[in-house]
Specification:
Blueprint: E1 2-7, E2 10-13, E3 18-26, E4 31-39, E5 46-51, E6 57-59, E7 67-72, E8 77-82, E9 91-99, E10 104-106, E11 110-115
Parallel strand pairs: 2-11
Antiparallel strand pairs: 1-3, 3-8, 4-5, 4-9, 5-6, 7-8, 9-10, 9-11
Length: 116
């Protein structure tokens, strides 16, 4: 099993920055890709950014140029640096990991609120 724990959320003014972190524990070697998802009230959960085991990343169009995903294997931690935040970025952000056997793991979610 893999356990994921997010941190770093909170309230920020529009134009500000936050850095989310996701620490993985458990059977780490099983992790292949990781990613950040978000879910705003009344909306479906959506992929924000993903990163492969080899470090290749992809982003939702809405966050390209503003968010950066990274992964520190030595610390078993994934980050999401969020700059130039907008009110529409307000959501619960979830850490996700996909195992080599295609199993999926989720964190408990963390609130990010961007005030206008």
């Amino acid at each position: 099993q893999v356990q994921l724990a997010e941190s770093g959320g909170g309230l920020v003014q529009a134009g500000g920055s936050l850095r989310l972190a996701c620490i993985a524990s458990g059977i780490i070697f099983r992790i292949n890709t990781m990613g950040w998802y978000r879910q705003a009230p009344g909306k479906q959960r959506e992929l924000v950014a993903g990163i492969s085991r080899g470090g290749n990343s992809n982003y939702a169009d809405s966050v390209k140029g503003r968010f950066t995903i990274s992964r520190d294997g030595a610390k078993n931690t994934m980050y999401l640096q969020m700059n130039s935040l907008k009110p529409e970025d307000t959501a619960v952000y979830y850490c996700n990991a996909e195992g080599l056997d295609l199993s999926e793991y989720w964190g408990q979610g963390i609130q990010v609120t961007v005030a206008s």
